């Protein structure tokens, strides 16, 4: 396994979820929509219970993945499962490698990521899937971020990138089965960059979900942690109705 870059965030085991994702692919892949965007280099910062299986599914869809953690040598199982379209390294390598960067880390890590690696992400699509949590990120910061809306709150630490808020309404188990009550689970997407929205929508389709374009990044607050559609498995139509989208 090739290792790139220098050290960053800790890694978590995602083996059970990856197994579910692989089973889902074997059953449902023939019925998924065609890949909406061409093969893309995706750098994943945070290779745990969300970033790990998302990378696997994207590799299966034809994208090139670079997983990262503080201990990339511990990502061997992820790389093998996603072979031959995956490698591993440190966070700076993922930030440099990716045309699209997935931030699958606690929001409290994003300010430091922006300071250390923001220069490597300039002009790139950066997708934030984080959800603040008081017991982990601190009560004051969590309240401040939710009041502002985590889309705008996290974007302030990464100026110059094409920032997108998406996938934060998903639970990890949904990655193994993106269906609920016979309908595809919807993924709300918000950004001030229309092309970045289009790219993210294509990546949502590659995971088996139905993208829902919410609008400007300021509207990401409407699907933050604790909102009526957060981790409910709502369909695209249910999301549109709840958020009063046309």
What does this structure look like?
- The protein is globular and about 45 Å long.
- The protein has a single domain (3-28, 35-242), classed as Rossmann fold (3-Layer(aba) Sandwich).
- Helices cover 35% and strands 18% of the residues.
- Helix 1 packs parallel to helix 2 (51-60).
- A nine-stranded mixed β-sheet has the order 1-4-3-2-5-6-7-10-11, sandwiched between helices. A two-stranded antiparallel ribbon has the order 8-9.
- The chain is α/β, with parallel strands linked by helices and 246 residues long.
Q: Biggest sheet: strands side by side, in what order? A: 1-4-3-2-5-6-7-10-11
- CATH architectural type: 3-Layer(aba) Sandwich
The counted number of beta strands is 11
Radius of gyration: 16 Å
- Say what the CATH topology is: Rossmann fold
Biggest sheet record: 9 strands, mixed
* Main CATH class: Alpha Beta
Morphology call: globular
- Helicity level: 25-40%
How many structural domains does the protein architecture include?
1
User: Are there runs of 5+ residues with pLDDT below 50, and where?
Assistant: 7-35
SSE ordering: EHEHEHEHEHEHHHEEEEHEH
Q: Quickly count the helices.
A: 10
Structural class: alpha/beta
The fourth-level CATH homologous superfamily is: NAD(P)-binding Rossmann-like Domain
Query: If you average the pLDDT, what whole number results?
Result: 89
Q: N-to-C terminal Cα separation, in Å?
A: 47 Å
